[in-house]
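Entry — protein

Goal — fold tokens:
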Amino acid sequence: MWIVCILVFVPIVGNLLIGIFAAKGMAESGNGAAGFGMLIFGAFFFGVSALLIIYPTVKLTKYATNIGILQQTRSMSDLAAALAEQRRFWKFYGIIALIYVILGLVFFLLMITLGGIGALAR
């Protein structure tokens, strides 16, 4: 997952560089706001994607570290620490899954509504 995190940051940097050059070119032609908007949107999109990958990666890394310690100590407190990290990982992905399901339902209902309005308009 750390490799994926690094691979997500490559487009962020590339997008920022392209956005800077695009904003400069658009500013010279009088459309600077559009270039700046493209820069902000791209950075926001890739930044959110990176955060959605980094947090669970950190939790899994802590879980793996705690499992390594648990193998050496066989302590119940180390087991509790490892299970707490695993619980946080799955709680995060449960919340993300719930958000995606809700957004999917909203999108589905929106498409049905807009399709019905379009059909009635004819």
Q: What stands out?
A: The helical segments are 2-29, 32-73, 76-121.
